[in-house]
Amino acid sequence: MIILVNVFALLAAGLLAYRKVTPLAFLISSVLWFTIMLAFWWWLPATIYKRSATFKDSFNVMIEKDHFFLDNNRGTVKTWSWREFSEFVESPQFFHLYFDSRSFFLLPKDVFKNDDDIHAARALMKEKIG
Q1: In Å, how far are 8, 84, 118, 128, 129 from 5, measured between CA atoms?
Q2: What integer pLDDT is reported at residue 54 of this predicted model?
Q3: Which of 24, 33, 39, 48 is CA-nearest to residue 3?
Q4: What's the pLDDT at 18?
Q5: What is the spatial distance between Cα 68 and Cα 45, in angstroms, rounded to a whole number?
Q6: Number of domains within the chain
Q7: Which residue has the higher pLDDT, 40 or 114?
Q8: Does one domain contain both 106 and 81?
Q9: How many whole angstroms separate alpha carbon 68 and alpha carbon 83?
Q10: How distant, in Å, are the alpha carbons of 52, 61, 83, 99 from that of 79?
């Protein structure tokens, strides 16, 4: 989505430069672009994260050769085998571990102690997840 929105913004700027659209149309599309970016990158996450107690917990993650473990400060432990995940996608702040096309788990990168742990986790995920 971020790519599509930015391509739209660049296309609108190009059309304005070649005088194919009016400045008012460019202004309206720019305001729309800015509003979408604010909503998806700051406003929605902030409102969702503040409401849910899950996002206020601190988690401990253990990544092993055959399993992925997650526990919180309340003593809840969850274990997944690597074969339960169909794919993973990496974003700047998270690993998105997909079970199927409609459900996934977000693993924040800040649970790792340093960049070496992140690189080791990335390598293991590439090896173990299809």
Answers
A1: 5, 33, 29, 33, 30
A2: 67
A3: 33
A4: 92
A5: 25
A6: 2
A7: 114
A8: yes
A9: 10
A10: 22, 10, 12, 13
* Single residue among 38, 53, 68 that ends a domain in this structure: 53
Tokens of 18: 């070649």
Assess contact for 60 and 111: CB atoms under 8 A: yes
Is 75 found in the same domain as 31?
A: no
pTM of the model: 0.58
pLDDT digits (tens, 9 = 90+) for 97-117: 999 988 988 888 888 889 999
Q: Per-residue pLDDT averaged across 49-69, rounded?
A: 79
Q: Which domain holds residue 118?
A: 57-128
Where among 32, 53, 74 does a domain terminate?
Answer: 53
